[in-house]
């Protein structure tokens, strides 16, 4: 199992769904099929692409089922005078939702909190000393909110940073799990998040075997939280391989 990074302890935060808890369906056994046809421990297919925004230093597009995100990275560029004497660079993160991102207008998550969590997830993976006295800005736009928004945003942002040539200790991947009764559902949909009893999100650097952030909501038993962590870590490792393949493919196209 991956070790935790000493600088980023686990955090406890309110649900990001912004929706009232609904009555859950009856889960008879582990073979119960989810609304999109997946099994409990099956992630959605991930589609990733770099170079989505020509005007940006780097960018990426991510599509995990109905969750669709585009991230643009600008910089490194000159920072304010207060940063001119700093030996390290600065990271700024901003997350926003398109007006048509959710099924019900006005039911948007608190983007300030999500932006802050994105910053915490990415900052430990960036070699800030590689761009002193300058700033890197990350702008994430959720085109469609289909569940597990923050993990998808984080993964897409990491890919965009790599596309921009920002020096990283490792790629950052993120996966969440919802607890529903005795069952754990990985990579939950919005519908599943709305009636979850608890959630756990892991952000990690898979090649370094380090967990950089863990967010937990609800009440968990020790066995369940260990199981959920392992599910997330295994999925993060697989997602990291997909991200590296995406970068290699983009590099080969550029060379051709």
From TrEMBL:
Residues 1-18 have a biased composition (Polar residues). Pfam families: RNase_PH, RNase_PH_C. GO terms for biological process: nuclear mRNA surveillance; poly(A)-dependent snoRNA 3'-end processing; rRNA catabolic process; rRNA processing; U4 snRNA 3'-end processing. Belongs to the RNase PH family. It is found in: Cytoplasm; Nucleus. InterPro entries: ExoRNase_PH_dom1, ExoRNase_PH_dom2, ExoRNase_PH_dom2_sf, PNPase/RNase_PH_dom_sf, Ribosomal_Su5_D2-typ_SF, RNase_PH. Residues 42-166, 170-231 form the Exoribonuclease phosphorolytic domain. This is Uncharacterized protein. Coiled coil: none annotated. The keyword S-adenosyl-L-methionine does not apply. Keywords: Cytoplasm, Exosome, Nucleus, RNA-binding, rRNA processing. GO terms for molecular function: RNA binding. It comes from Erythranthe guttata. The keyword Nucleus applies. One of its GO terms (cellular component) is nuclear exosome (RNase complex). Residues 1-34 are annotated as: Disordered. Its main location: cytoplasm.
